[in-house]
Design goal:
Blueprint (H helix, E strand, L loop, with lengths): L2 E4 L18 E8 L13 E3 L12 E2 L16 E4 L6 E5 L8 E7 L5 E6 L5 E6 H4 L14 E8 L2 H4 L2 E6 L4 E8 L8 H5 L14 E6 L1
C-alpha cells in the first residue's frame, strides 16, 4: 500500500474565482531498484543515460565507483554525482522539452542529506524533495534495493508546461543518479530536434505548487 503525504498546498485563490489559477501538482513516488535496471516505465521516452556528454548537464559524468561516489545499483555506463567531492549542486536543463507528463530516474545509495529541486522559469523552485522523502531510513546503503530506487515525478495542470530543469544537491558524498527519463511529450519524432537546442520557454507565472510524495 502506498503511503502519501502532502508537502505543500496550492496557491490561495485570487480576488475572483474566475481568475484563480488551475490546480497543479508534483507527485513523487518510487519503487525499489534492482541489480538489473528495470527502466522508468515510460514508452517512447527521452532518456539521459550519461553514457556520453550532454550539454544539458552542468556537471561531470563518472564511470566508476570510488571512495566518494558509488554507481547506482542497476546502473551501467556513465552516471552523475554531486557532493563535496564533485560540486555540491548540478542542474539538468530541460528548457524546450515541455510539456512533460512525468520524469523518472535511478537514485543511488539514497542519503538524508541528498535533495533535489524541480525548477521553473528563472530558477523558481516548483517543488523540493529530500532523500528521506523517498525512503526512510535514507542511510546511503549502496547494495540495498530500497536505497537505490526508481523515482518518478508526475505533473498535472500548469506544472506540465512550467518545468525547466532538475537541480540535484548534496552536502555529503554523494548524490548519484542515472537514466533520467522524460515521458514522451511531444511525439518521439521531435525529440532529436529539440534535444540539440534550447526551445522557446513560455513566461511561467510564479505560483506555489501542491506537492505530494509516496513510496512503497
Amino acid at each position: 500500500m502506498m503511503k502519501k503525504f502532502v508537502l505543500g498546498l496550492t496557491a490561495a485563490a485570487a480576488a475572483f474565482a474566475a481568475t484563480a489559477p488551475a490546480t497543479a501538482t508534483v507527485v513523487l513516488s518510487s519503487t525499489p531498484g534492482n541489480a538489473v535496471y528495470q527502466g522508468g516505465g515510460f514508452d517512447n521516452a527521452l532518456i539521459f543515460d550519461f553514457d556520453s556528454e550532454t550539454p544539458r548537464w552542468s556537471g561531470p559524468i563518472f564511470t566508476t565507483t570510488t571512495e566518494t561516489r558509488a554507481r547506482p545499483l542497476g546502473s551501467t555506463g556513465g552516471f552523475i554525482s554531486v557532493g563535496p567531492a564533485d560540486g555540491r549542486t548540478g542542474t539538468l536543463d530541460l528548457t524546450g522539452l515541455n510539456p512533460l507528463n512525468a520524469i523518472s530516474f535511478l537514485w543511488g545509495s539514497i542519503d538524508e542529506y541528498n535533495s533535489f529541486d524541480v525548477l521553473g522559469a528563472d530558477g523558481v523552485v516548483l517543488a523540493s524533495f529530500t532523500g528521506s522523502d523517498v525512503w526512510n531510513p535514507a542511510n546511503g546503503n549502496q547494495t540495498e534495493v530500497n536505497t537505490n530506487r526508481i523515482v518518478r515525478l508526475d505533473f498535472t495542470g500548469e506544472t506540465r508546461t512550467a518545468v525547466t530543469g532538475l537541480r540535484f544537491n548534496s552536502f555529503g558524498n554523494a548524490f548519484e543518479v542515472d537514466n533520467i527519463a522524460l515521458a514522451a511529450v511531444p511525439e518521439p519524432a521531435t525529440w532529436a530536434m529539440m534535444i540539440g537546442g534550447f526551445g522557446l520557454v513560455g513566461a511561467a507565472a510564479r505560483r506555489r505548487v501542491r506537492t505530494s510524495v509516496a513510496y512503497a
